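Name: Helix-turn-helix transcriptional regulator
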Amino acid sequence: MISREMIISYLTEYSAIEEIFRTYYEQDGKVNSFYDMEKKYAFFMKEGSRFLQRKKELDEKYPKKILDLDNVDLDAWEKENVQKNMDHEIKEKNRVHFLHKEFFETDKNIFINKHIRFSPGEFHDHEFIEMCYIYKGKVDQFLRSKEGKAEKKETLNQGNLLIIPPGMQHKVNIYDDSMMINIVVNKYTFEKTFLGDIPQQSLLHQFFSEVLFSQESNAYLVFSGGNDEVLRDKLLDLMVAYLNETTYGARICDHYLSIFFLELLGQCKNVKLSSRLGKEGEQMTQILLYINHNYASISLEEVAEEFHYSKTYLNRIFKKHMGTTILKQIQDTRLQESCLLLKNMRMSVEDIALHVGYEDTSYFIELFKKKYKKTPLQYRNDID
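Structure predicted for Helix-turn-helix transcriptional regulator:
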């Protein structure tokens, strides 16, 4: 049984390949590229015996499944990259594109690994969602929509989570003791676990779908300002489930990932969006999440105060980017939540109305009927 203490220990200490990379970095002062191998090859050949000794120590200390977090066959790595060096000029002109089949076993929807410290980063993209969680320290990510486009540097601090959509090119270099965990998720599982608990018809759901799955958006999300201990705790739960293979392991991992996302959406106070929407548009994510968290008790005045806008200006920019007003969005969120309660809870209509923010049950029923063309009870009976 692999415990969270065992995982924490392995994440913290240097693996065999990390030690080799760190030694090279300390001696040479830089690690430019995986393809710049002529000098490195001689170095790795010289350090090979030390690598094998360290690898043997780790093999004796940790179960093989944990070692898969950053499993590297140095012999194969050397041969492969020396061959790549022969085609260096060609390779540098082409981005690296990763496919689903390279990361996911047939019964797995998630792949998790520790980013190898002191290893040189190369721009790459993929056809799945990648999430980078900063477990310790500070990490710089470099992102671009495609080759030749301007790079954007994103500095991520401990507890931050970066969500990178399919097709977005990025690279990362870690040249200190900072630690980053990569969580790779296929698109179907991401939609089910991240968006699954957000009503499908809601503007928040549409917004995240547009940001993460539209080929034109070229956007990524950075979540920050949450309770680092809570998020780390949920992530470790996920890793324990991931590493301890059981009969229903894949489904258990999906559930833990869903819990992690719920904590992320509930905990994080700041959500940074990088896209074509500009500065105003970047705030839409935070406004939508704020409404989603507080829909039952907020007003237009409170939203405007929270984001330091006048009511008029807030409504104007919200309608410009979202196509609706703040009050309409609050109302829609309340009604969407009431649908979930009618489906999943045996609460009375009066209790549901009060729960979503309406003291006047008759007014709630009137709004519900106007939107869904049936009363709340008719809606519930149709489901049953």
